[in-house]
Write a structure and sequence with these properties.
about 140 residues; 1 helix; globular; alpha+beta; 8-stranded antiparallel β-barrel; 2 domains; about 25% helix
Length: about 140
């Protein structure tokens, strides 16, 4: 059996206590980061807040009936995703100011990768939808 001197035992105890303090500090920092990031936008926390843009949208109520395989298919918006016909986009950096919502979109359009800014103005069951501009198509919520 190996015997350690009193100095080495004290150093080992200090290392163990230091590791516990460091672990507790990291856990607290993670909690603070989570609280800070959850305060940024409603869309960044879809499990607790539903963004008003989430749903299916089309130019007319009749267009809501179009199949997903049609170029006239409704736009489907999820908390962090846009889908319509042959376009699929991941949304990030989602920001909200009143009825205005903006997001960065990285899209695959018929296999080609594209980057855009998505700009939405949501007013109940109506929305103005634009790529890289607040002016664009006027859409209605599909029910």
């Amino acid at each position: 059996m190996i015997k350690f001197g009193k100095g080495l035992q004290t150093a080992g105890l200090l290392l163990a206590v230091g590791a516990l303090v460091l672990t507790a500090g990291v856990a607290e920092a993670r909690k603070r980061h989570h609280r800070a990031s959850s305060d940024t936008t409603a869309a960044d926390a879809p499990s607790t807040v539903t963004a008003p843009y989430i749903g299916s949208w089309a130019k007319t109520a009749d267009a809501c009936k179009e199949p997903a395989s049609s170029a006239k298919a409704p736009v489907v918006l999820k908390a962090k995703r846009y889908m319509q016909f042959e376009t699929d986009c991941g949304l990030s950096s989602i920001k909200n100011a009143g009825k205005l919502w903006t997001a960065n979109a990285v899209c695959k359009v018929q296999g080609d990768k594209q980057r855009h800014s998505l700009v939405l103005t949501v007013d109940g069951d109506s929305m103005e939808f634009g790529w890289d501009s607040p002016k664009g198509d006027k859409l209605v919520r599909c029910k």
